[in-house]
Amino acid sequence: MNRLAQTALLFLLGATLLHAGTTDLYLRYVKEGLRPLVLLAGAVLIVTAAATLWYDRRGTSTHEGGTSTHEGGASTHNGGTSTHDHHREPRVSWLLTLPVLALILVAPPALGSYSAAHTGTALTKPFGFPALPAGDDPLRLAVADYAGRAIYDDGRALRDRELRITGFVTLDREGAPYLVRMGLNCCAADAQPVKIALTGNVPPVLRPDTWLEITGTYTPRRTKDPVNDGPIPYLEVTTARPVPTPHDPYDETWNT
């Protein structure tokens, strides 16, 4: 790989990061709050590529100007081969093309039911529970917010209120349905699920990865995650309707 190829790869990778950061593509890889860093990384790579090209062209011009004064104006060294052409990086440098191709050609979907079914619930006890807004029902909650209040606050603020929660469906080995959102600490590589078991007026046929908006009520019933024995609360379902995949499929409520 010569210097020109390195510059082209740096520029392409930077442009790809800028594209990801200015669209929703970056949400497939990192949490929403890291968008400025994605854009900054893309800008830095493009500036680095431009600086590399400028220094390379400047060095070439200086080299050619210096050699023209030697041996009657000859412009080459060592039998006509420019020493500049020998500055090539190891072939392993071509591995830099892999992240570029991955970002351009293979945009993975958000993690879904398969990951949730094979990973134990990551619900942890929060430091506290802020007051819920008063007003007309239904009250919209995140999956992690409902699960945390149901398990660690015994549903005190949830009783006698109609709730609305959105998540995707996953099924355990016995076919029991759960409403799930995946939470991120940093990026998709560390995503973990928070789960709510469904009871009541559950649709008779549920397909994994289907996004549902559930309207229901709190119930003190609980179960344990078959993967890690973590606590999972139930939700008494009143109605359920399919909805499109949200703008940001990950839920950061549980780790904020």
From TrEMBL:
Q: What is this protein called?
A: TIGR03943 family putative permease subunit
TM annotation in the entry: 36-55, 92-111
Entry coiled-coil feature ranges: none
Organism encoding this protein = Streptomyces massasporeus
Give the region (Disordered) as residue ranges.
Answer: 60-88, 222-256
Point to the regions of Low complexity compositional bias: 62-77
Q: Which UniProt keywords apply?
A: Membrane, Transmembrane, Transmembrane helix
Instruction: Identify the residues that the record assigns to the DUF1980 domain, covering every copy.
Output: 150-250
**Transmembrane helix recorded as keyword:** yes
